[in-house]
Specification:
Elements (H helix, E strand, L loop, with lengths): L8 E3 L5 H7 L6 E6 L4 H17 L4 E6 L4 H6 L7 E6 L2 E7 L4 H12 L5 H10 L5 H14 L5 H12 L3 H9 L3 H4 L2 H14 L7 H10 L4 H13 L3 H14 L7 H12 L3 H15 L1
Parallel strand pairs: 1-3, 2-3
Antiparallel strand pairs: 2-4, 4-5
Length: 289
């Protein structure tokens, strides 16, 4: 595969990943293609991606990662099969897919993220003028809307999100599991499922006060750091939670088979603060490489 067929296509490695993918995605989305020379489906998908990158003429850039030459980089993204493609925007993974999709589905995938919807700005401006509502108020409102419009499946995703924010993990999972296939893979649904997975890890664990006491007594109590990181992430101080995992990554990278890195990657998928994710992803990358 030739990454030089277009100025919008480039090779990605550990040296240029931060600058050419993470930082560059703050201005232009980057589609990252994980491939290998021996991979048959990659030989089908690669040329189609290159064709679309040229056709889109700068709407996105295509970064190609040879997984055989960049195994640690592939590990950071948790790549389990190839080809795998991920769309990075504003410093975070926005969406992705595995396998060689036909060209029609590739175009549909790109159009979901690279073509702004008409009236989007106006709708956001209106939303900013509306009074904020509590999670419980949102739950009541959405339940009424679903009863009145049962065919609007997207309301179930809104309800699942509101239930999760209110701490109703089991109810949120029930709504999430009832989504139709097209919504089950929606970016919001994937992010919410990651949040619920992390929330389940806290069941039966000590309170934040107890965990802080443990850390005060033993600064190398990595389990306490890990659990407190979860509580802070899912609470009201996600940046403080991320700091705990960065500390583990720096001081005890191999603790529980690299759990800190896994936590960070999962956390990035739950946060919708692009600047925060970008900043901490860069710090994680600097520690790993």
């Amino acid at each position: 595969m030739n990454a030089a067929v277009s100025p919008h296509i480039f090779d990605v490695d550990q040296d240029n990943f931060e600058a050419e993918v993470l930082q560059a995605s703050l201005k232009t989305p980057v589609l990252v293609d994980f491939w290998a020379t021996w991979c048959g489906p990659c030989k089908t998908l690669g040329p189609m991606l290159e064709k679309l990158a040229t056709e889109y003429n700068g709407a996105f850039r295509l970064g190609k990662v040879d997984v055989d030459k960049n195994q640690e980089l592939a590990g950071v993204f948790g790549i389990r099969s190839i080809p795998t493609v991920m769309l990075v925007k504003d410093g975070q993974i926005l969406d992705g897919f595995a396998g060689a999709l036909p060209e029609g589905q590739l175009r549909e995938f790109l159009s979901r993220h690279l073509q702004p919807q008409e009236g989007e700005i106006e709708e956001e401006d209106v939303a900013e003028d509306l009074p904020s509502e509590s999670p419980e108020q949102a739950i009541n409102r959405l339940q009424q809307e679903i009863a009145a419009q049962p065919d609007r499946a997207e309301l179930k995703l809104d309800l699942a999100t509101a239930l999760a924010h209110a701490g109703h993990v089991a109810a949120a999972e029930t709504e999430l599991n009832s989504l139709p296939a097209n919504l089950a893979t929606d970016t919001r649904a994937v992010r919410l499922r990651s949040q619920l997975d992390l929330a389940r890890s806290l069941e039966g664990t000590p309170s934040s006060d107890v965990l802080e006491q443990r850390i005060h007594a033993n600064a190398q109590d990595w389990e306490a750091h890990d659990l407190l990181g979860l509580r802070l992430l899912l609470g009201d101080d996600p940046s403080a939670g991320l700091e705990h995992w960065l500390l583990i990554l720096e001081k005890a990278r191999d603790w529980r088979e690299g759990q800190a890195k896994k936590r960070l990657l999962a956390a990035f998928n739950t946060l919708d603060d692009a600047e925060l994710v970008s900043r901490y992803r860069r710090r994680m990358t600097s520690l790993l490489f």
